[in-house]
Amino acid sequence: MSIVIRDVREHELDSILALNNAAGPSILPLDAARLRRFHDTAEYFRVAERDGNLAGFLVGFGSGSGHDSSNFRWFREHSGDAFFYIDRIVVASRRRGGGVGRAFYADVQSYAELRYPVLACEVFVEHDSDPARLFHGSFGFLEVGQHVMPEVDVRASMLVKPLCSHAWVHQRYGGELPDVPWLLRPRAGAPLAHRPTGT
Predict the structure, then answer these.
(1) Whole-number Å distance between alpha carbons of 58 and 45
(2) For residue 183, is it within any domain?
(3) Contacts of 196 (CB under 8 A, 6+ apart)
(4) Scanning 59, 76, 114, 168, which has the fewest C-beta atoms within 10 Å of its C-beta?
(5) Which of these, 169, 168, 161, lies nearest to 105 by C-alpha position?
(6) Is 39 part of a structural domain of the chain?
(7) By residue range, what is the domain housing residue 72?
(8) What is the pLDDT of residue 23?
(9) For the whole model, what pTM was predicted?
(10) What residues in the chain have per-residue pLDDT under 50?
């Protein structure tokens, strides 16, 4: 019954595409080409397994990446700090409420706080988003604005969570984290984390 969070495997992309496009109106649909671009460029692309089955996935990009979503650009324009952006998290409908989302957020925060001062994401305001907004609020996210996504005409609540461990980690280790096995590395081909000067 345990949840395992691990890097995506290329042969899983078709299953991830189906999972994404069955998630309902709170998740934007994907096509195979865009999912492939995520696979090739995302700094963080991990899946959850429960009982040996795919239970969900999370895709994230550092603020120094060339990610092209309008929400990512909004954070770039409105953020004074570097940030790590959660583009999407999808949990299989049969697994919702079973801790998969919390396991993902614990994992992505552990990754991001070593490299970025802020975690950023959005939740759609429409489509009965109260459970998602409550989930993010209980995880320490705060709304810093709203943005209407021009490509789909959907309003998003733009959320950030300051990562309090980042300042200590950056002060102690700078841009060179220790070479220890448990420390999750950026995926191959992903851009390195942007480090703001003076922090």
Answers:
(1) 6
(2) no
(3) 81, 82, 117
(4) 168
(5) 161
(6) yes
(7) 3-173
(8) 87
(9) 0.88
(10) 189, 191-199
Q: Give me the pLDDT at residue 174, please.
A: 80
CA angle 64, 58, 174 (to 5 degrees): 40
Q: What is the CATH number of the domain that holds 27?
A: 3.40.630.30
Place of tokens 């994230």: 60
Q: Which long-range contacts (CB under 8 A, 24 or more apart) does 39-42 make?
A: 39/8, 39/10, 39/13, 40/189, 41/65, 41/66, 41/67, 41/189, 41/190, 42/87, 42/187, 42/190
- Sign of the dihedral defined by the CA atoms of residues 23, 17, 13, 94, in that order: positive
Tokens 């309090």 locate to 164
pLDDT recorded at residue 37: 95
Residue 48 lies inside a defined structural domain of this protein: yes
pLDDT score for 24: 82
Structural contact between residues 63 and 85, judged by C-beta atoms closer than 8 angstroms: yes
Looking at residue 15, what is its pLDDT?
A: 95
Q: Tell me, yes or no, whether 193 lies in a domain.
A: no
Can you tell me the distance from the alpha carbon of 180 to that of 189, in angstroms, rounded to the nearest whole number? 20
Residue reference for tokens 């963080």: 44
Q: State residue 195's pLDDT score.
A: 38
